[in-house]
Design brief:
Blueprint (H helix, E strand, L loop, with lengths): L1 E5 L2 E7 L2 E4 H4 L8 H6 L1 H8 L11 E2 L5 E2 L8 E5 L3 H6 L9 E4 L5 E2 L2 E6 L4 E2 L2 E7 L15 E8 L2 E2 H5 L6 H4 L6 E8 L11 E6 L2 E7 L7 H9 L9 E3 L21 E6 L3 E9 L1
Parallel strand pairs: 6-17, 8-14, 9-19
Antiparallel strand pairs: 1-2, 1-5, 1-14, 2-3, 3-4, 6-7, 10-13, 11-12, 11-17, 12-14, 15-16, 15-18, 18-19
Length: 283
Amino acid sequence: MKLANVGGRAVLVVGEGAGIDLERASQGRIGPDPQDVVARWDVFLDFISRLRYSPENADVSFTPADLGPPVPRPSQVFAIGVNYREHADEAGYPPDSLPVTFTKFASCLTGPQAEVALPTDTVDWEVELVVVIGRRGRNVSRDAAWDHVAGVTVGQDLSERTSQLEGSKPQYSLAKSFQGFGPTGPWLVTPDELPDRDDLAISCSIGDETLQSSRTSRMIYDIPELIARLSAVCELQPGDLIFTGTPSGVGNARTPKRFLTPAEELVSSIEGIGSIRTTFRTA
């Protein structure tokens, strides 16, 4: 299944630009708010198991510009740094470095076709697979981890490198939480829709130039391991997001360094999910 946020309403995607409004289809059993769908994930699954849906049942039409973040108000946003070996190498981390955990504050989240103001001339790109939690859990085992996942989506961990790296200690969370610095979408995709939930092509580009290209199977810590480690400390809540880390190819690690500029369009794609497009302007 693909679940979209269309103008602030929860919609089941059933075709190109076509969907079913979940509140209307469920006669109010499922609320209109996309956040409520993941917050009551088992209720949603029970309802959808009995719903006959197809493009012929669509009662909503939409364009990419109508889409908002699939999960607009998560209670917790976890973000993982240096979780691909090649990215750890390019960033200068030693081979035994553990992936670092920080947060992107939820107010930075935006949808799959956003225009983002650049606060400085050192804003970088980081395409990431984003996991959406569907079931509450603490001390979740690796074997049970995927049972706690509602779905996945495409994300960009936009990063303002000057404020991140100035001073003696990095400021990950603030530098990655400017307005619009968390594009996500185009929709939430349940794992059963994916060709291989543990091995998806992931990339981002500007125009004809590919900036990053890898596969999610190259993560140092895969999704089950991330869920096990995070839930050993924090109770995971339905609707929580996990930005799972970025491959190599970020602008700050290039020689010479390269950063995003006004009027550029950054396209971020993950196999089986789709693409998000972010344009930039001067703040």
